[in-house]
Every structure is written in structure tokens, then in C-alpha cells.
Write a structure and sequence with these properties.
188 residues; alpha+beta; Uridine Diphospho-n-acetylenolpyruvylglucosamine Reductase, domain 3; 5-stranded antiparallel β-sheet; 3-stranded parallel β-sheet; 9 helices; 10 strands; globular
Amino acid sequence: MHCDLVEPRSLEEAVENLSNYAPDGMPVAGGQSLLVMLRNRMIAPKALVSLEHLEGFREIRSAPDRRLSIGAMVTCSMLMRAREIGDGAPVLAEAAGKVGSTAIRNLGTIGGNISHNELGADLPPALLVLNADAECRSLMGSRRIPLGEFFRDYFTTSLEQGEVLCRVHVPVLPPRAQGLYVKRDHHC
């Protein structure tokens, strides 16, 4: 089966491309989850719309409302190293450190990690505990979805056809707040 790779230069162009290919277009970030799903024939899109060149998608910013704004293309390695994450949401930095191997952490993104809602993914539990929300965009406009509503079931989210996850917003923890991310080994 043939699959087109579309490389838009703006968010507007990306959502337009996804709309044009609906329902058979999918956004692609780092591709770590998506490639496994393609290889296992769980999905068969006609087009992949790359988020690679979209401005701001690889940024972590502190917002005035005491929230961290994390672009969908921020990798797990970036989450582990970012001072803002370590200071404001250390449990997210810990969870990012548990994701796969170094190679996967260097390529896998927060956007891909939560958009596919894979069984056993590390970032969703940490983000749920932190009361994060997802900022999404389509031709119809933007919306913010609390992650408790965003995740519907394994491999199922509330992302709609033609919609792109742009950013994840995480409240900064109060001073002296502590947390711990523990990943249980299922082989015991």
C-alpha cells in the first residue's frame, strides 16, 4: 500500500492537509509509536503529515498562568533534561526517563506518546496526575482538552479527524511538592 509523506511548513497547512486526506491522513511526530502500528498493520493511512517543520512544536515554555507549555515535538530526552520540567513537573521528567531505550527517548515525542495512548506508555500516567491538558487544532479552530477526557481507551483518544495535537499544558507544582514515578516490572 502506498502512503504519501506530506511536509507542511505551517500549522495551518498541516491541518488543511489532514482535512484533505480525511479520514485516511495521520500526523507524524517522532514516529516511534506510529511505525510500530504501521508495521503491525494496526493502521493503514494514505498520508502521513509531518509535524517536523512546524514552528514552536519543539519548545518548552513557562506560561504566565503557572503552567508549562510543551510542544508536541518535544522528545522524551528533552523532557528529561529541561530545567523547567525538572523544577516544575519533576515526575514528568522521571516518567520520560523510563520510556524505552536512549534511541527511542531521543526520537519519541510527547505528542506521539499521548496521541496513540498505547498500553504501558509512561507519559500518560504522569500527565494525568499533573492535571495536564492537550491543546488541539483543526480547520474548525483550537480547543483544550483535559487529559482525563482526552484518553478514552487504549489506542483511543478524543482527537478528531483532521485535528493535530499542538501542545500539552502542565500546571507547575507548588514549591516543596514532591512526587515519584515508579514503573512496575511486569516480569516479577
